[in-house]
Each structure stands twice: as structure tokens, then as C-alpha cells.
Amino acid sequence: MKFQAKLSGKKHEWTEASTEARSEWSLEKRPGGWIVATNAKTNERVRFFYARAKQQFWAKIDGHDFFGERLPVHREGGANESASDFTAQFPGKVRKILVADGQSVEENAPLLMIEAMKMEFAIKASNAGIVKKVLVTEGQQLTPGQKLLDFEDANF
Amino acid sequence: MSVLPAQKLMVANRSEIACRIFQAAYEMGIATVAIYAPGDEGARHVTMADEVAPVESYLDAKAIVEVAKRLKVTMIHPGYGFLSERSHFAKLVEEAGIQFLGPKAETMDAMGGKIAAKEIAERIGVPTVPWAKLELSKTSDAELKKAADRVGYPLLIKAHAGGGGKGMRRVDRFEELKPQAEIASREALNAFGDGTLFFEHLVEDPRHIEVQVFGDGTGKGIHLFERECSLQRRHQKVWEEAPAPHLSEATRKGLFESALKLVAETKYRSAGTIEYLVNAKGDFFFIEMNTRLQVEHPVTEAVSGVDLVHEQIKLSLAALAKQAYALPVLSHPHGHAIEVRVYAEDPSQGFIPCTGTVNHLIWASGPGIRLDRGIEVGQTMGTSFDSMCAKLIVSAPTREMAIKRMQYALRETVISGIGTNLEYLATIARHPRVVEGKVNTHFLDSTDFPGNGAEFSPMPSVSEFEFLSLAEELEAPPASENTAKLWQGLREVIG
């Protein structure tokens, strides 16, 4: 099974560890949730942290923090609904709609502006695709879980 | 001190500041009361207190005072935010015969309004940023132009009731003033229910430096040195330190003297902060007074050795016992301290607040490391409240070592289950401009800093990804050793 990492709103290939890495590094689980990797050839030690809950993961490697999603790669062929559902995460208000029904958009294109918690946020396309239908109107109050738009993902 | 009846302290607040105040109460032998609003049932501060009571909202002043009366509370600490600077709350508390651990209601009224505070400052000779009232309906164009010329371009339009950058607009030419004012007024009206505006001279590339003060309420007071809070993302402080680096002794002396003038003039009681802008030449301008204990107070505690919450409580105990309160005596700051604010947010998605359940916490500890936190493992972060979940504070004999220590503390801290800004903070701690101490309030939002305050997207390297894959396999090993070998062969064949 192949995986993708969704980090910082973008998808990256996440392959299995290379044979070299597997043979060179041995991993040890340490108390506290840490993992220490030791390189058999060089004796180099790297301490890191890795935790997962469903698709989400959190990692800290050599003092650098990352968090994102680990997503299975879908089978080739046929248009599919995007795995990323465009739903409101928290109560807010639709400030501006930046796309029209049927519009093709590039990956990371801003689709909607949402105002929540006294700040403005852009809802962006997680992949290139087509906005099938915008389900909200400007000025509308949003409740968590409310679907914002139907999106057809070009990558699937 | 004469024998007082047993005291009971309620914190009319939540999260880390409630926890921090409960520690002080415990140390002083005072019983504690926590309140919690819907969404905070599982919060850390609720577990810590001796007694707890639900409220509909942390902003419901009447209900909170009713609960306090019912539980025979003798002191209320308002923390920061929420009701901390609402004079009607302070009034209600004192009318109920309860000590308010903060300034007098009339001081909040006098200093709480940005315009009124400027007028007081001007009267007693504290330098302020040149400013003027902005009342479109009452002022003719000619008068407006004259005022703008006197203040000097560029101008900054501000909301009287403002905060967090709402209602703020830069104006470079007179023609822009009216249209920008209309937008700002609407924004302020929406955000704060008050569209009153003023404008002031925009101090370019300023540093934000503030002085911690503590007054006994009679006009006597002390300053507890300054804090540098220039590292702000979109007007939100993320990194604060004490003392301020690269500040001339003349400027420092001027800041302290004017801060003490304001304390004396207002007969300030309890802890407060006087905020200034300082330009590259070292000229300083009073901007406002925060009539509360601030988020960044721990850096001052670290360099002064004074526990500000203890002092607030001692001041109240002295008042109850009708005894004199002795202000701490300080000579100079000891060493250097830095605080960072840990937020549950996703910097890569425009710093959007993150929700979720905390499933793992590893906190840095060791010499010179302090952690003020509001979260526990298993606690759910919702969206009802501010997303700050902890503050990491380090102190060391020198600034150079304090920065190293902050880098270490961030390296040792792990939070999983929710997204956080830890990597953003670590990037700040490593940045050469920060290490040099050469920053201003625009730095984090400028192109000199990764993501310029809009979006910050850390990416693992190929080798780091490989470690993640190995870690995955540690949990769920691949089908079998043989399969791996089989694939290895295949890879070689394919080339």
C-alpha cells in the first residue's frame, strides 16, 4: 500500500523506507514516547518522536516539528470525490466567495474567505479540480460540520 | 499581620493563567475556586481548584459575582482578557465586599480608553505619539487636513475600542484618509460594537517596549523593569523578553520615569503595564496602559525575583487587615528571560486554530525553564476559546544563553494530538536577527521571516521522511522480511 503525506496543505509521496535505510538504521522505542534510531555503520544516533491518530500524525525529528495527515493513495482512473471534505471546522461567517459553480481551479487556489475567531482564513483547494457547487452564500453564518462546497478532485 | 479569617480566591478566568494563580494561592495558604464555561468541562484549571462552579460565560460578570457570593469567596483575580479590564466587573466585585485583585474601577475607566489615557499622559508630560480625534461627521475637511498635517504622515487610523489590529489602517496621503476611515469605522463597529476612531502618527519600524509597574493604590509604586515584545505576528505577541536588548540607558531611564509618573498620577493599584513604541533613535512614545496582569508577566518575574500574583494577594491581605503594604525593593534585573506562546494552530494554513484531543505531552524541564500550561493529556481543544495552550519561559545569566536555552526547551517539548506552532517558535529562536536582538514590530510579518506572518510551512527533508517511514514500520512492520527482499529484487530488475 502506498501512502501520501499531506503536510502544509500539500500532498507528498510517502514511500516505504528504502532498503538501505532499513538495513542501516535500527530503531528503539524509548520511555516517554521517544524513538532513537542508531546507524550501524556510523554509530550516529537520531532521537525523534512519532505518533499517529487515525490519518493524522505528529513528528519531531532532531528538533523540528511536523504534523499532517498520512493518506492512502487511491486507485488510478475515474473521477472521485476528494478525500478532503470542505466542511466548516468551527462557527464563523462566509466573508467572500472567490469561485463560481463549475470553475476549474489549481491546487491551493483560494475558494472562500471565512471569518472566525476575529480572524480571516482562506479555504483553499487541496488539489487541482472542479468546484461543482458552492453550498453557502456570502454573509452566511456557519455551524461546525456544515458543508461549504462540492468539489471534484482532478487527481483521483 | 493580624489574624484574618480564612481567605478564598476565585479566578474569573481559565486555562494557564487560572492554573498559575491557583499555584500562588496554594503557596499562600488560600483556598481556590474555579469557574468553567461550556466547552471547558475537561480543562486543566477545573481539576486544580478546591471548589468549582459552572457559568454560562466567562464574560457574565453578574453570574460570576453571584457564584462568588454563594461560595463565600473573599478575593477575585480576573486574569487577562475576558472581564479583566471591564470596570463594571471590578465595581460589582467590590460592591459585593470581595477584594478585586487588580486596579480600581475608576483607574480602568481613566486609563482603559486609549484616548483618555493619551490625554492624561500628555497632561503630566509623558511623550505620546502625535494624534487627533477622527470624527468624520463633526469635522470639516479643512480641519481634518490641518490635524493630519500636525500629526504628520504616515498616519495610522485606530479604533478607540480596538485590539488585535481590527480597525487599523495606514494612510499616506490626505486623499486616503476619509475612505480608509469609513472602512475602519465599519470594521471597528462590527468587531467591538464601537466605531469611534482616532488617528496618530505612524512610528516607522518601531519596537514595542513596555514597563511593568506595581502600585499600592495611594500613589506610591515601583517599576519592575522593561519587556521587549516586538516579535508579533499580525499584532499578536509571540515572543517576549526582559530586559530589552540594545536599549540605551537614557531611553531606559526615560521609560521608567514616565511609567512611574503615570502610576503616581492614577494612584495605580496592583499590577499594570505601560506600553511604548521606541524608534530607531531611541525616542519613546506612550501608547497605552494595560490595567491587568499580562500574559508575558513571567519574564518580569524571572528577572526581578518578584512573584507578581503573590504581591497582588499580599496587597489585598494588607487592605483587609488595614495594615500598610510594603512594595518590593528592586535595584536591577538579574539575567535575561524569554517567553514564547504555544498556540494550538496550524501555521501552514494561515495559523488557523487547531482542534483535537491532546494525546501526548512531553514538557521541557531543567535549569531555568518554566512552563505555565492550561492543557493535560486527554484534554480536548475546542474553538470556543483562545487557542493559546501554554507558555514556555526560560531564564539564564545572559541573553545569549537564554536564547540557547529556549532552543533547547523547544527541542525537548512535544505535543501530539493537536497541531501547534512549536516549529514556528523554534524557527524564531534560531533566526539570526532574533539572536542578534535586532527586530521591530514588523519583522515577523515581513519578507525577512519565513512565511511573512501569513503562512508558515515547514517541510521534512527526504531523510526525515525516511525516519517517519521507519517509525511507521516499527508499529506495523511490512508483510515480511521476504516480501521486502522480493521487492528489492524487483527494484533491481526494473532498474
Strand content of chain A: over 45%
Helical segment count of chain B: 16
Q: In total, how many beta strands of chain A?
A: 15
Fold-level CATH name of the largest domain in chain B = D-amino Acid Aminotransferase, Chain A, domain 1
Looking at this structure, what is the CATH superfamily of the largest domain in chain B?
A: ATP-grasp fold, B domain
State the CATH architecture of the largest domain in chain A: Beta Barrel
How far from one another are the termini of chain A? 16 Å
Low-confidence stretches of chain A: 75-83
Counting copies of identical and different chains, the oligomeric state is heterodimer
The count of β-strands of chain B is: 23
Mean pLDDT of chain A: 82
Question: Order of strands in the sheet with the most strands of chain A?
Answer: 2-1-7-6-5-4-3
Structural class of chain A: mainly beta
Q: So what's the CATH class of the largest domain in chain B? A: Alpha Beta
Overall tally of structural domains of chain A = 2
Rg of chain A, Å, rounded: 20 Å
CA-based shape of chain A: elongated
What CATH architecture label of the largest domain in chain B applies? 2-Layer Sandwich
Gyration radius of chain B (Cα, Å) is: 25 Å
- Briefly note the structural class of the backbone of chain B: alpha+beta
Verbal overview:
The complex is a heterodimer of chains A (156) and B (495). Chain A is mainly beta. Chain A folds into two domains: 3-72, no CATH class; 80-153, Beta Barrel (OB fold (Dihydrolipoamide Acetyltransferase, E2P)). Chain A is 4% helix and 52% strand. Chain A contains one helix and 15 strands. In chain A, the strands form three sheets. A seven-stranded antiparallel beta sheet of chain A has the order 2-1-7-6-5-4-3. Chain A starts with a strand and ends with a strand. Residues 75-83 of chain A have low confidence and may be disordered. By secondary structure, chain B is α+β, with helices and mostly antiparallel strands. Chain B folds into four domains: 8-101, Rossmann fold; 130-201, ATP-grasp fold, A domain (Dna Ligase, domain 1, 2-Layer Sandwich), CATH 3.30.1490; 207-453, D-amino Acid Aminotransferase, Chain A, domain 1; 462-494, no CATH class. Chain B is built from 16 helices and 23 strands. In chain B, strand 1 (8-11), helix 1 and strand 2 form a beta-alpha-beta unit. In chain B, helix 4 packs antiparallel against helix 5 and helix 12 (399-412) runs antiparallel to helix 13. The longest helix of chain B has 19 residues, at 174-192. Chain B is globular and about 75 Å long. Classes of the chains: A mainly beta (156), B alpha+beta (495). Chains A and B meet through strand 2, helix 1, strand 3, strand 4 and strand 5 of A and strand 17, helix 12, strand 23, helix 13 and helix 15 of B.
